[in-house]
Design brief:
Length: about 90
């Protein structure tokens, strides 16, 4: 099941972040302030999902493989932002 959720998160990160918030306590349990979760929804949804999941799995600040996943999520979010900006500039 986590594999399917991960694949869907790559395709629709904001929708998956909303669904995780609506149907589980992953965000409430691992992110102290819901303002950060809302900011993550707007600016970096993959990073927010990766941080919340890594925080819950590692029992604290993401370390080891969870840190690698978090860094990849940041890079993917930056790439998604950059690709949407370049599409707007071409029009």
């Amino acid at each position: 099941m986590p594999f399917i959720v991960g694949c869907l998160a790559l395709g629709m990160p904001r929708v998956m972040l909303f669904l995780v918030w609506a149907f589980s306590d992953l965000l409430e349990a691992n992110i102290d302030n819901m303002l950060w979760a809302v900011a993550g929804l707007v600016f970096a949804p993959l990073t927010t999902l990766a941080y919340a999941y890594g925080h819950s799995e590692s029992g604290g600040t993401p370390a080891g493989i969870w840190l690698v996943i978090l860094v990849l999520a940041v890079l993917l979010d930056m790439g998604l932002l950059r690709s949407s900006r370049s599409k707007k500039e071409k029009k």
